[in-house]
Amino acid sequence: MKRKHNRSKAPLIALIPTWAAVVVVYLGTMVWSVSLSFTNSRLFPSWNFVGFEQYSKLFQTPKWLVSFQNLIIFGVLYVLGCLFVGFLLAAALDRKVRFESAFRTIFLYPYAMSFVVTGLIWQWMMNPTLGIQESVRALGWQSFTFDWIINRDLAIYAVVIAALWQGAGLVMILVLAGMRGIDGEQWRAARIDGIPVWRTYVSIILPQLTPAFAAAGMLLSMGVIKTYDIVVALTNGGPGSATEVPAKFIMDNLFQRQNLGLATAAATILLLTVLIIVAPFRYAQYIRARRQAGTL
C-alpha cells in the first residue's frame, strides 16, 4: 500500500521543477512588471511609488490612444475576416476537390511563416513604386492606385490584408476538421430534401462548427493582443502613427525612450485585456464540461 501511495506521488514530484518555473518565470515577472507600473522608473527600475500616475499619463498620451484604437480595428477585421475566409476555403475543400492535399498545403503554408516574413512580402507587394500598383500600371492601367501602405487612412487595412493572408489557413484547417467529423447522413438527407448546398452549409453544418470557430477565434484573438512583428516589418507603425499598436508602443518606451514605468503600465493594460478575453471563454468551457458530465 505504501509503495502504491509513493508511486501516485511520483508524477507530482516530477512536475515540481515545471511549477517552480511557472511561478518564478511567469507569475514572478508578471507581478514584478505590474509593481513597476506604479513607480516612476525610467531607464532602471526604481521603487519610488507614484500610485496611478503612470496610468493617468498613459491614457493622456495620444499615441497610446491611437494604438489601442488601431488594435481594435485590426483585431475585429482580422478575426472576422479569417473566420469568414477560412470557412469559405474549408467549404470549398470539403467538396472533395481534386488535388485537395496540394490546396491544403498551399492555403496553410502562409501560417507556417513568421509575421516578419509576411510583413516583408506584403511591404514589397504594396510598395507603390515596385509592387502591385506598378505592375498593373505597366500593363496599361495608368489610373490604377494601390497605395494603402503610405495612406494614413488606409494603412491599418493594409496590415489587416497581410495578416488575413497568413491567418486564414489556420481557420481553414480547424473548420475542415470539424466538417469531416459531421455525419454524412445529414448531407444525404439534405440532398433528398432538395436543400441547396449553400443552405445546407449555413443552416445545418455551420451551427455544428461552433467549437471549431470558438477555438480558432480564441487563437486569433490571442495573436491580435501581441501584434508587433508584422507592423514593424510592414509599416513600422507609420505613416505617422497610423498603424501604431500597443505592443510597439510598449517596446518603443521600453528600449528607445527608456520609460520603464510607462511601458509596464501599458503592458499591464494589455494583460488585463487578455484576461478579459480569456476568462469568459474558459468559463464557458468549464460550464459546457460540467453540463456534459451531468453535474449541472
TrEMBL record:
Matching SUPFAM superfamilies: MetI-like
Keyword Membrane: yes
This protein's UniProt keywords: Cell membrane, Membrane, Transmembrane, Transmembrane helix, Transport
CDD domains the record matches: TM_PBP2
Domain ABC transmembrane type-1 residue range list: 68-281
InterPro entries (UniProt xref): ABC_transporter_permease (IPR051393), MetI-like (IPR000515), MetI-like_sf (IPR035906)
Source species, domain of life: Bacteria
Residue spans crossing the bilayer: 12-34, 71-93, 105-125, 154-179, 200-225, 260-281
Record localization: Cell membrane
UniProt xrefs under PROSITE patterns: ABC_TM1 (PS50928)
A Pfam family annotated for this UniProt entry: BPD_transp_1
Membrane topology of this protein: Multi-pass membrane protein
PANTHER family noted in UniProt: ABC TRANSPORTER PERMEASE PROTEIN
Family: Belongs to the binding-protein-dependent transport system permease family.
Designated name of the protein: Sugar ABC transporter permease
Species of the source: Rhizobium mesosinicum
Taxonomic path: Bacteria, Pseudomonadati, Pseudomonadota, Alphaproteobacteria, Hyphomicrobiales
